[in-house]
Amino acid sequence: MSGPTPDFWQARFLARDMPWDRGEANSQLGAWLAAGILPAGARILVPGCGQGWEVVLLAEQGFQVTGIDIASAALELCKAHLAQRGLSARLVQGDVLNWQPDEPVDAVFEQTCLCALHPDDWQAYAEQLHRWLVPGGKLMALFMQAPRPEDEEGVIGGPPYHCPMTAMRALFPARRWHWPAPPYARCTHERLGRTELAVVLIRR
Ligand SMILES: C[S@@+](CC[C@H](N)C(=O)[O-])C[C@H]1O[C@@H](n2cnc3c(N)ncnc32)[C@H](O)[C@@H]1O
User: Fold this and answer.
1) Which residue has the CA at smallest separation from atom 4 of ligand 1?
2) Separation of 176 CA from ligand 1 center, angstroms?
3) How far is the C-alpha of 172 from the C-alpha of 189, rounded, in Å?
4) In this predicted model, what pLDDT tens digit does every residue of 68-127 receive, in sequence order?
5) 70 CA to middle of ligand 1, Å?
6) Which residues contact 77 (CB under 8 A, 6 or more apart)?
7) What is the largest CA-CA distance in the chain?
8) The domain 6-16+40-203: what is its CATH number?
9) pLDDT tens digits along 135-144
10) Which of 70, 172, 183, 199 is least surrounded, with the fewest CB atoms within 10 Å of its CB?
11) Measured in angstroms, how far is the CA atom of residue 68 from the centroid of ligand 1?
C-alpha cells in the first residue's frame, strides 16, 4: 500500500492531532446548499468524513447522508456530534477504494479525502466516485492546493497530496464529467495554510 495506513489515521484521531479539521462545516458546503444545488432529501455520500462536520450539516438539512471513514475513532466523534444534536446519519467504517453503496446516490461531498490518498490510488478512487453517482449526480469537490518545494524534484509528498487542476482534469475527464467554466471559488484553509478550489462536477 502506498501512502498513509489505516493505523496512521486512527492514531491521528485518537491523539486529536487533526490539523485539517476546521472545527465546523466548510462554508462552501453551506453556500452550495443555499444556492439549491441539491434537491430536498437527496442521497449524499461523504467519503473520508473524519469527525464529520459536513455530515452533521447535511443531516441537519434533511439529506440522506452517509459518512464513510477508515478510522473508527473518526466515526465515534461523528456519532457523538450527531447524537448531541439529535440527528441521524449512516456511518460506515470502510475503505473508499472498495466500499460500495447499495444503490447509486445523488451527490458526493469530496473534501480532503482525495488529498489524503496517495496518488497511486487516485485513479481507483475516481472510478469509485463515478460508480457511486447516478448519471447527472453531483460531485461537490474541494481540490486541495498543496504544492511543496520537493514537487519540482519529482518527490510525491503528503498527506495532503497536492491536487493540481491539470491532474484533476486527467482524473475526471470531460468525456465522463461536466466541468463548469473557471475560475473556481477559492476556500482558504486557515489551519493548514492552504487553499481549496471548489468545483461541482456533474457525472455524465
Ligand atoms: C485529511 S482527513 C479529512 C477529514 C474530513 N474530510 C475533513 O475535511 O475534516 C482524511 C480523512 O480520510 C480518511 N481516510 C483516509 N484514507 C481512507 C480510505 N482509504 N478510506 C476511507 N477513509 C479514509 C481518514 O481517516 C480521515 O478521516
Assistant:
1) 50
2) 25
3) 23
4) 999 999 999 999 999 999 999 999 999 999 999 999 999 999 999 999 999 999 999 999
5) 7
6) 13, 50, 51, 52
7) 50
8) 3.40.50.150
9) 999 999 999 9
10) 183
11) 8
